[in-house]
Design a protein that fits this description.
It is a single chain. The protein is of the alpha/beta class and about 190 residues long. The protein has a single domain (about 5-185), classed as Rossmann fold (3-Layer(aba) Sandwich). The protein is built from seven helices and five strands, in the order E-H-H-E-H-E-H-H-E-H-E-H. It has helices spanning about 10-25, 30-35, 45-65, 75-85, 95-115, 130-145, 160-170, and strands spanning about 5, 35-40, 70, 120, 150. A five-stranded parallel sheet has the order 3-2-1-4-5, with helices on both faces. Helix 4 crosses helix 5. The radius of gyration is 15 Å and the shape is globular. The protein binds iron/sulfur cluster (SF4). Iron/sulfur cluster binds near residues 43, 180 and 183.
């Protein structure tokens, strides 16, 4: 397996990265060769917020020597393709499904073009997200490219949820109080 991990933010990705690195090492593989992180988050509504979150994933991935590939940031395109007509949808509603699908399709395309055969994401590690929606979006994305399989693992299980929270504290991560788009501001959820 050569894995591409789509990352939505460092708080959601920390325990996943740590676990994957450990598992690859146990197989005798160098995590820096077995996987890379794909940062594709045009859902984030302003550049300052985007850069804050990006800095944290870069800092954490460096500890493991894992490459972070940054996708183009284009919130205008995200608004046009994902949010238009869905502005009033609640979290876990149709806008979120299309948001996951938008980002995961970009990740699947990158994976197919760059020698990765498996794709997963940190998106569903937050309890505020719908696992079913993330899984549907991932399967849909991988069905649109050749040679990339979707890995719909439940990253909340196996002790990863408490470890997620420990790493947030250990690393003193910037931990945002809204999901990312302007429509999620003021809601109680976190990414
Ligand atoms: S609330 Fe989060 S997942 Fe839903 S559309 Fe906004 S950024 Fe995307």
């Amino acid at each position: 397996m050569r894995l591409l991990l789509h990352s939505c933010c460092a708080p959601c990705s920390g325990a996943i990265i740590e676990t994957l690195a450990k598992d690859f090492r146990a197989e005798g593989r160098d995590p820096s060769e077995a996987m890379a992180i794909f940062w594709s988050n045009s859902n984030i509504c302003d550049r300052q917020e985007y850069d804050k979150r990006k800095a944290e994933i870069l800092r954490y991935a460096k500890l493991f020597g894992i490459e972070v590939i940054e996708d183009d940031y284009d919130h205008g395109e995200w608004l046009a393709e994902v949010a238009r007509g869905r502005e009033d949808a609640p979290e876990r509603g149709p806008r979120c499904l299309e948001c996951f699908a938008y980002r995961l399709l970009r990740a699947a395309r990158y994976a197919a073009a760059n020698g990765f055969d498996t794709l997963t994401t940190s998106l569903a590690s937050s309890r505020w997200k719908s696992l079913e929606q993330v899984d549907e979006a991932g399967r849909r994305a991988c069905s649109q490219v050749d040679g990339v399989q979707w890995w719909g693992r439940n990253w909340r299980k196996g002790g990863l949820q408490p470890r997620r929270n420990e790493i947030i504290k250990e690393q003193n991560f910037y931990n945002q109080t809204f999901c990312g788009c302007e429509f999620s501001k003021g809601l109680i959820s976190r990414n």
